[in-house]
Amino acid sequence: MSAMAKAGLPTSAKFTPIDVVRRGLKISLALAMLCMASAVWPQDDDSGPALSRGGADTCINCHRDEKLPGVEGRLQRLVASPHGERGDPRTPFGQLECESCHGPQGDHPRGGKETIIDFGANDTASPVDEQNAACLGCHENPVGNDWHAGEHAAQDLSCASCHRAHLARDPVLASETQTEVCYQCHQRQRGQVQKPYAHPVRFGRMDCSSCHAPHGSATEGSLRRLTLNETCYECHAEKRGPFAFEHQPVTEDCSLCHAPHGSNHPAMLTRRAPLLCQQCHSQAGHPSLSLTSSGLPNDSPSGFLLGGSCLNCHAQVHGSNHPSGITQMR
Ligand code: HEC
Ligand code: HEC
Ligand code: HEC
Ligand code: HEC
Ligand code: HEC
Ligand code: HEC
Ligand code: HEC
Ligand code: HEC
Ligand code: HEC
Ligand code: HEC
């Protein structure tokens, strides 16, 4: 059975008075049940553009032609998406069908000026506010709450710059395909996650929204959690502590030492030891400049120090619970 038939989409554009009555009933029922979460357009009175009479059939009647900005093939995929669920009165296809998103038809079929909402797939586009209002009419909660305060809204992005509606599966919702959507505008991050030491984003085992709230958040950098560290602890819980002996920069900000998008240094470090450590430690107990032995136990020169590797001795750099862990060596 085709997706279209499955969703009960008639293939004829004819409508009868009974259809109109049924459609009217359906609309008022939907609005009555869902006035808190639905796109509400002006109805067939003088207050604005009129709805079509035949719903999706009216649109498909013209938009099946390949020469028009057609959705014939893609339409079938729309009805196979969650938006095409006719049995669910919260969805567009449980309500005004195409017009739930594209707005009332008005005089659009006659080429009139009361245009329907254009999401920009074909070079032309309605103002972003208008486009987003159509989506937020149903998605104000919870999406809108984050959206209005976020950086993407401030940059005037449309919902449709990330979301595809005329596909059964929206690519931005799956890890393997999401990153391509983000890279359209974030080329720098594409390069960073390709570096030799990086989160497994390029293998589709993680994606940008593993750490970021794409609709916005109160955190700098639009992270999923209230702080940068909380975001990391979501998966690296063992680094949370509390430790008997903490290392101050670790509790403060993981990105003082790690580049979260990727790095050329093992463990995604921003720099290699000893340079990494020497950003903050110059003369501490023993000189952190690795070429002398002064200050080391017995004043004996150390191969480790000569190698410059602080971590050979200070292995517990994230904090220690060992009774003698104060210098993070165990
Ligand atoms: C009488 C035929 C006809 C009907 C009915 C019709 N359209 Fe259109 N539509 C067109 C034509 C022709 C264009 C191209 C206009 C242009 O290029 O300026 C168009 C353009 C559009 C666009 C903008 C595409 C773009 O790239 O500019 C959208 C969106 C759209 N129609 C949606 C709908 C919806 C939703 C319905 C049903 C409510 C509908 N149309 C009903 C003929 C029709
Ligand atoms: C008439 C109400 C309505 C409108 C208008 C609407 N949506 Fe939805 N949307 C829904 C409902 C209902 C669901 C299914 C939610 C669920 O199952 O929990 C949904 C689901 C989604 C999903 C998740 C899909 C998935 O595969 O899980 C996305 C993304 C989405 N909508 C984006 C949009 C965008 C972008 C727009 C505007 C172009 C839009 N929606 C317009 C009601 C609507
Ligand atoms: C920068 C890209 C981007 C933009 C712009 C965007 N979204 Fe999303 N959206 C996503 C991603 C990524 C997810 C999946 C979130 C996840 O995996 O946690 C998502 C998920 C969703 C979902 C389903 C899951 C949920 O959070 O409820 C809905 C509904 C949704 N978006 C609606 C919208 C609406 C409405 C707009 C415009 C106001 C919008 N989105 C703008 C990227 C975006
Ligand atoms: C969930 C909201 C939603 C529904 C329902 C919906 N569309 Fe769309 N439509 C969009 C979005 C978003 C785009 C942008 C391209 C994409 O996402 O694939 C679009 C693109 C289009 C375009 C190309 C011009 C443009 O606006 O970019 C046409 C024409 C169109 N839709 C017609 C229809 C018709 C006809 C129906 C009903 C059978 C329909 N749409 C139902 C959201 C929707
Ligand atoms: C249509 C272009 C566009 C797309 C697509 C896009 N972004 Fe953005 N994004 C921007 C712009 C513009 C900014 C602000 C300038 C900057 O920081 O680069 C921004 C900023 C950000 C920021 C920084 C936010 C802050 O508060 O500083 C993050 C994080 C982000 N985007 C993540 C994403 C993710 C994740 C995706 C994919 C799901 C995505 N973006 C898709 C345009 C886009
Ligand atoms: C492991 C977690 C993580 C992943 C995965 C991740 N980011 Fe980030 N991202 C961060 C952190 C942490 C910041 C820095 C936030 C701050 O400003 O403090 C950041 C910052 C950003 C910024 C702001 C500019 C900048 O570079 O500081 C953008 C844009 C961004 N990320 C986009 C992306 C995109 C696109 C993806 C997917 C390819 C992605 N991020 C994946 C953690 C992550
Ligand atoms: C969604 C889960 C998730 C989040 C959130 C996350 N990580 Fe990771 N992290 C992983 C996974 C998965 C790996 C790869 C493990 C592997 O490749 O075996 C990893 C690897 C690492 C590694 C490298 C380990 C090595 O042996 O090279 C570092 C360092 C790291 N993460 C730091 C961070 C930091 C800092 C943050 C916060 C900005 C963060 N992670 C957020 C899941 C996550
Ligand atoms: C003072 C610098 C520094 C800070 C701050 C720091 N790390 Fe590390 N991290 C390192 C070093 C150095 C290594 C490599 C350790 C090694 O090679 O034995 C490492 C390794 C890792 C690894 C991979 C090996 C392992 O131990 O699992 C993960 C995951 C990790 N760090 C996560 C984090 C998280 C999460 C934070 C924030 C809570 C953080 N780091 C803060 C220096 C730091
Ligand atoms: C961003 C700055 C910063 C970086 C980078 C850093 N540290 Fe620290 N470290 C500190 C601070 C601050 C303290 C706490 C100092 C104090 O309490 O007097 C500390 C404490 C220590 C201590 C314990 C000293 C004591 O007696 O309490 C050791 C050992 C140490 N760091 C080793 C390292 C090593 C090894 C590295 C490199 C992997 C490193 N640190 C990187 C800032 C840093
Ligand atoms: C050969 C082992 C070894 C190596 C390599 C080493 N350290 Fe140490 N470090 C020690 C010992 C032992 C102590 C404790 C000294 C003491 O108690 O007086 C110490 C103490 C410290 C302290 C705390 C000093 C204080 O004020 O109490 C810091 C900070 C430190 N080391 C940083 C570094 C840095 C940075 C490097 C790399 C450049 C490094 N260490 C390399 C063995 C080492």
Describe the structure.
A two-stranded antiparallel ribbon has the order 1-2. Helix content is 31%, strand content 1%. The N terminus is likely disordered. The relative contact order is 0.07. It has three domains: 124 residues, no CATH class; 81 residues, no CATH class; 72 residues, no CATH class. The chain is mostly helical. It contains 13 helices and two strands; from the N terminus they run ααααααααααααββα. The longest helix is centred in the middle third of the chain and has 20 residues. It binds heme C (10 copies). One heme C binds next to α3 and α5.
Instruction: Evaluate the radius of gyration.
Output: 29 Å
**What number of structural domains do the residues give?**
3
Give a list of the ligands.
Answer: heme C
Strand ordering within the main sheet: 1-2
**Total strand count, please?**
2
Structural class assignment: mainly alpha
Q: How many helices?
A: 13
Mean pLDDT: 81
Order of helices and strands: HHHHHHHHHHHHEEH
Biggest sheet architecture: 2 strands, antiparallel
Query: What's the quaternary structure here?
Result: single chain
Q: Catalogue the unreliable spans.
A: 1-39
Query: What is the molecular shape?
Result: elongated
The percent range for helix content is 25-40%
Q: Which percent band covers the strand fraction?
A: under 5%
Gap from first CA to last CA: 65 Å
